[in-house]
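Need residues for this backbone.
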């Protein structure tokens, strides 16, 4: 703060983990080098994202929640059926998010419609197996 006092600020992150315990442990490890003072994990929820579309664009600094509708035809009734699936998309702008979705889905044969794209307040995403420090490469020749 301007007067020198510290203010608690809530931030949201996505952590790829197998359990709530692992998620808490991983976020504490990841954030310990970035935060000074005390910090705590106040809430953990299971995310509803089917997949995450990452971007290599250096301007990609936002995360968008995208709801896609996959279109299938019911063979018995011959009616169109739509199923909703949520994705997390890394991009620098709304249009960049739409472009990333189209690029990721372009290689599939599935018919889809982008039902919605909404900017989230997520600060970052931590993938499973990718930590802040580089992992040593496994080399079977040098096993101990």
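Answer:
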């Amino acid at each position: 703060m301007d007067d020198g006092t510290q203010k608690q600020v809530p931030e949201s992150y996505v952590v790829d983990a197998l359990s709530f315990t692992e998620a808490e442990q991983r976020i504490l490890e990841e954030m310990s080098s970035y935060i000074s003072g005390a910090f705590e994990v106040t809430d953990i929820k299971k995310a509803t994202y089917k997949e995450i579309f990452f971007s290599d664009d250096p301007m990609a600094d936002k995360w968008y929640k995208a709801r896609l509708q996959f279109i299938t035809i019911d063979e018995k009734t011959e009616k169109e059926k739509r199923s909703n699936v949520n994705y997390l998309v890394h991009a620098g702008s709304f249009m960049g998010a739409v472009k990333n979705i189209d690029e990721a889905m372009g290689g599939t044969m599935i018919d889809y419609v982008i039902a919605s794209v909404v900017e989230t307040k997520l600060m970052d995403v931590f993938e499973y197996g990718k930590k802040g420090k580089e992992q040593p490469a496994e080399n079977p020749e040098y096993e101990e």
